[in-house]
Design goal:
Signal peptide: 1-15
Strand content: under 5%
Number of domains: 2
Strand order of the largest sheet: 1-2
Keywords: Signal
Order of helices and strands: HEHHEHHHH
Helix content: 55-70%
């Protein structure tokens, strides 16, 4: 369900000061602190603190935490750009196969555990 539609439903409940907490599955559209449902609910219901859903995988919590560390943001952005550079061209992918004999893992911006193999590959290939 779209966050705007959910916001309209929540607003229509007229819960006022009784709404003191909110938690979603961690999806950016729901939990986004700028324009997601969390921000809209917090604006209307001042006491509704956001609590990250405990049932959601810890990797999403870690991923969102990394967004607040500038060096991590730069590192993973560069890593994703490097992987995309090779994966979006069959010619560059072949060159990578010939010279490095490995391929980059695909990058998933929302999942920490999907980026871990890519980080390990780069570390083992470039650093070691």
């Amino acid at each position: 369900m779209h966050c705007l539609k959910l916001f309209v439903i929540i607003s229509s409940l007229e819960c006022g000061s009784n709404l003191v907490a909110q938690s979603y599955d961690g999806a950016a559209v729901m939990a986004g602190h700028l324009g997601g449902l969390q921000a809209r609910v917090k604006e209307k219901f001042k006491h509704a603190i956001f609590v990250h859903c405990i049932a959601n995988r810890p990797n999403l919590v870690l991923s969102q935490s990394m967004d607040n560390i500038e060096d991590c943001k730069v590192f993973f952005s560069a890593l994703g750009g490097l992987a995309s550079f090779f994966l979006k061209s069959s010619k560059r992918t072949r060159a990578l196969d010939v010279h490095v004999q490995r391929r980059f893992s695909k990058v998933a911006l929302t999942r920490w555990n999907y980026n871990e193999p890519l980080g390990k590959q780069c570390f083992n290939t470039v650093i070691l």
